[in-house]
Amino acid sequence: MSNEMNSSNFIRNIIINDLETGKHDSIITRFPPEPNGYLHIGHAKSICLNFGLAEDFNGRVNLRFDDTNPLKEDVEYVNSIKEDVKWLGFNWNNLYFASDYFDEMYNRAILLIKKGKAYVCDLNQDQIREYRGTLTEPGVESPYRNRSIEENLELFEKMKNGEFEDGEKVLRAKIDMSSPNINFRDPIIYRISHSTHHNTGDKWCIYPMYAFAHPIEDAIEGITHSICTLEFEDQRSLYDWFVRECEMENVPRQIEFARLNLTNTVMSKRKLKQLVDEGVVDGWDDPRMPTISGVRRRGYTSESIRNFCREIGVSKADSTVDSQLLDYFLREDLQPKAPLAMGVLRPLKLVITNYPEDKVEMLEIENNAKDESKGTRLVPFSRELYIEQDDFMEEPVKKYFRLFPGNEVRLKGAYFVKCNDVIKDENGNVVEIHCTYDPETKSGSGFTGRKVKSTIHWVDAKNAVACEFRLFEPLILDDDPENEGKHFLEQINPKSIEVLQGFSEPTQIKDAKVLDKFQFVRNGFFSVDSKYSTKDKLVFNRVVPLKSSFKPQK
Ligand code: ATP
Ligand code: MG
User: Fold this and answer.
1) Is 334 annotated as a binding residue?
2) Nearest protein Cα to ligand 1, atom 22
3) What tens digit of pLDDT does each residue of 288-311 get?
4) Distance between CA 188 and CA 242 in Å, rounded?
5) Are residues 371 and 336 in contact, defined by beta-carbon separation less than 8 angstroms?
6) Cα Dmax for the chain
7) Confidence label for 408 from pLDDT (cuts 50, 70 and 90)
8) What is the pLDDT of residues 498-529, one digit of tens each?
9) Which option is the CATH number for 269-339+467-544: 3.40.50.1820, 1.10.8.60, 1.10.10.10, 1.10.1160.10?
10) CA 395 vs CA 37, 400, 405: distances in Å
11) Is 123 one of the annotated binding-site residues?
12) Contact 44 CB / ligand 1 (< 6 Å)
C-alpha cells in the first residue's frame, strides 16, 4: 500500500522542501480524532493523508485521541476508531491520548500566567461573547484582565481543586482584545467541568480548550506537520502563539486542507449521532450511514475507499464530491473479486410444463464472466424456477423483449423458454407463468436455429436458498445537505431501504460467511450482513448496483 497518496499535492511539496532544506530529518504526522462518535468517510480522507504521508516519506504517524471534552466522549468510540483505522489498512506507530498530557498542559498554563499571558476571568459565557466584539468592532477588555500574577495563580489552583462551580471561572490567554483576528481576543484556555473523564476519571475538574490543547499535544509528540481542515486556517497564528509562548521545544507546522463533502451525505459526527439517537437509522453501523463501520457492514472494501481518497487528492478549496465516484471505485474493486451467482430479488414462479417432473440437471455456469480462470460451477435446473417479476409483462410495453405471452427468451446458461400461459389469483395478480422449453437450445450446444432478444437469470425452485436482500438509496435526498436553510432531518429519503424476500442459487452461497461479497447477475454487488444474517437465513446488503440509477434531487 505504499504510495497511497502519491498524487502530487501541496502538502507533499512542503514536506519535500522541509526534508531537502534539513528543517526535519524525518516527519511525524498524526490523526487526532475526538472520541465523540464513529469515524466517517471524511475521516478516511484525513487518515489516508496522514498515514500515507508517513509511509511514503518513511516517517511516523500517531493515532491520538483528542479527548479534552469528557461529556461527549466514550470508550465505545475509542474502540471503534481503532478498529476502523486498522480496517482501512493502516497501523500507527504510537497511540496517545491528549488526556495523558493534562499535567503538562496544566504546567504550561501556569507558565503563561507567570509570564503575564493568561488570567482567570469571572465573566460568564454570554458576557465573554458580548465583550469579544465583532469582525468590524474591537472587543472590550474584561474587568478581570489585570488581576495580579499571584491572584491568577491562586485562583487557577482553586479552579483545579474544585473550589468553583462549572462556568464560574475560566482561564483566558491575555493577547489582544482589538486584534482583527477574533481568535486572538483573549481566547479561553481552561474551563471548569465537574465530570468524569473516560481516561482520567475524577482527577480533573478543569479541562483545556481545543485551541490551546491541540498545539501543545502536537508539540509534545514532536509532530512536524499537523494537518487539519480548512476551518482552522484562522486559528493557525493562534496555534503558533501557543507553541511559542508555552516555550515548547518542538515547533509543529499546521497545514490546512479541504474537508471531504459527498453528495447526498451528511458528514459530521454531530449529525450522524442525531440520526442514531432519533432512530432514523439502526445504529452507527447502519449500512446507509457514511460511517466507516456502516460502509464496512454494507460491504464496501477498504481498498476502494483508499483508491477513492487517492483519486480525489488534497486541495485548498472546499468542494463536494459526487458519491457516484465512490461507487465507481467499489465496482472496480469488486468486479474481479466477487463471485457471480444468480439470485432473484422479487420472485415469480415459472413452470416448464414440458420438462420432466423429477428431473434435475446440473448446468455448468462460469463463475466470473470476465475471468475464465475463476472456473465454472454446477447449478441445478429443473421444472420449476423463479425469475424476477420484472422479467415478465403480461402486456408488454414497446421495446420490451423479455418474457410475455408468446415470447421466447434464454434462461441464462440453460435453455430457451416460451411463455404460453399466465396463472392469476382471485385478485387478478399473476402468480405463476407456464412455459415450454426447447431441449435443442441448451447453452453451449452451439444451437443457431433462431435467436432471442434477451437472456434472463433464474433460480431452481426446488434447490433455491431463501435469502433476504436489502437494497439502499441515499439516506439524504438533497445532493447538498449542508445547504443553508434546509434541515437534514427533513430531507430523509423515505425509500432509503427496501427489504426483499427472494432466492439464491445454492452453489455459490452455500458456505457464505459474514461480509463475503457476491455479484448477483444483473442485480449488483452484495455482501452478507453481519447483524441480521442467521444460520438459517442469509441477509444480503446491496453494496452497489451494477449501474447507477439514482438521480439526485435538485
Ligand atoms: P466532525 O465535524 O464530523 O465531528 P471533526 O473534524 O470534529 O469532524 P475530529 O474527530 O476532530 O472530527 O477529526 C479528526 C480529524 O479528521 C481532524 O484532523 C479533522 O480535520 C479530520 N476530518 C474530519 N472530518 C473530515 C472531512 N469531512 N474531510 C477530511 N477530514 C476530516
Ligand atoms: Mg470535532
Assistant:
1) no
2) 43
3) 999 999 999 999 999 999 999 999
4) 12
5) yes
6) 102
7) very high
8) 999 999 999 889 899 999 999 999 999 999 99
9) 1.10.1160.10
10) 52, 10, 8
11) no
12) no
